[in-house]
Automatic annotation (TrEMBL):
GO terms for cellular component: SCF ubiquitin ligase complex. GO terms for biological process: SCF-dependent proteasomal ubiquitin-dependent protein catabolic process. It holds the Pfam family F-box-like. Coiled coil: none annotated. InterPro entries: F-box_dom (IPR001810), FBXL15_LRR (IPR057207), Leu-rich_rpt_Cys-con_subtyp (IPR006553), LRR_dom_sf (IPR032675). This is F-box LRR-repeat 20-like. It comes from the Eukaryota. The lineage of its organism: Eukaryota, Metazoa, Cnidaria, Anthozoa, Octocorallia. It comes from Paramuricea clavata (Red gorgonian).
């Protein structure tokens, strides 16, 4: 074969159309994209095309050693088209309020914000970001322990399109903060209150009265809610996905809540139930299955293992059931 046909013109890539280069760049990791942007002016323009900067996930990028406020600013100031940001994960543990300031400055189109477990974030930072990004639809501040009622008030005033919020382990949140949130955010479909120890049955009632589109709620490890509070809540809201757990405290949620769920949630599709006692729950779970025949996923944590007969009976009652998790074992049904 003639040698001239084997020769590859190294400059050929520069003659590729913009659309082809954009397609190639779309497979690059964040660090790679920033590096190739320095090749030439054309590549710099293409590397920061808005179509490549819709989702910024710094939580799992293995090429980035650590993420701090300075690196967040360096990335964000080059584009204003980002709609989803994930700053959760161990790599982002240095992220604080300054990062929220940069997000509010450079990401006016933001729809999805995940800053879970960023303990340096304060109400002041949340105020800045919700005022600058009123189009926010998904907010995850789980484990941001300094977040309080003030943040919920700011979110309620500025984010009318909010659909999902996770404030799990935000132990400063109280009923009146929830009230300020849900009275203005009428489109919420998913909310997580896990470990919000200051929220009471009254807070659940406020959610039920205002979140008419609610489909999924997490009530695990909440010390101040009771069976009656959950019953009154479920009477008003046709929940499809529910997470709830027993607490050791007297007067809290007990096994009887499964009977409440079986009566009030005939369309329930997913149940996550956490049990701190060490006695059998076969009868309760069977009763639940009989009342919730549309279950597709059932997660039972720290429960006494169900008997084989009970397990077989559940699968017969709930033909759509495809996933059962019994700590420490799982069953996936075809």
């Amino acid at each position: 074969m003639n040698a001239e046909f084997l020769h590859v013109d190294e400059t050929a890539i520069y003659f590729l159309p913009d659309q082809v280069l954009l397609q190639i760049f779309s497979y690059f990791k964040l660090r790679e994209l920033i590096m190739v942007s320095a090749v030439c002016k054309r590549w710099h323009r293409l590397c920061y095309d808005s179509r490549l900067w819709v989702n910024l996930d710094l939580s799992q990028d293995m090429q980035i050693r650590k993420v701090n406020n300075k690196s967040v600013k360096y990335i964000l100031r080059r584009t204003t088209s980002i709609r989803e940001i994930n700053l959760s994960g161990r790599k982002c543990r240095r992220v604080g309020n300054n990062s929220l300031t940069y997000i509010s400055r450079y990401c006016p189109q933001l729809k999805n914000l995940n800053v879970a477990s960023r303990i340096k974030i304060l109400d002041k930072g949340m105020k800045e970001i919700v005022q600058a990004c009123p189009g926010l639809e998904y907010i995850n501040v789980e484990g941001c322990m300094r977040i309080s009622n003030g943040s919920l008030i700011y979110i309620g005033k500025n984010c009318p399109n909010l659909r999902s919020i996770n404030i799990g382990r935000c132990k400063l949140v109280q009923d009146f903060g929830l009230e300020a949130l849900v009275k203005n955010c009428k489109n919420i479909t998913t909310i997580s209150l896990e470990n919000c120890h200051q929220v009471t049955d009254q807070g659940l009632g406020i959610i039920a009265d205002n979140c008419l589109l609610l489909k999924s709620i997490n009530l695990k490890r909440m010390r101040r809610i009771t069976n009656s509070g959950i019953r009154e809540f479920l009477e008003k809201v046709p929940i499809l996905e529910l997470s709830v757990g027993l607490m050791r405290t007297t007067g809290g949620v007990t096994d009887a809540v499964l009977y409440v769920i079986s009566r009030q949630c005939p369309q329930l599709e997913m149940l996550e139930f956490e049990h701190f006692a060490r006695y059998e729950v076969d009868g309760c779970v069977l009763r639940l299955a009989e009342g919730c025949k549309h279950l597709t996923r059932l997660y039972l944590y720290r429960c006494y293992p169900l008997s084989d007969m009970t397990l077989m009976r559940i699968t017969q009652i709930c033909p759509k059931l495809s996933d059962i998790h019994l700590f420490p074992e799982s069953f996936y049904l075809g």
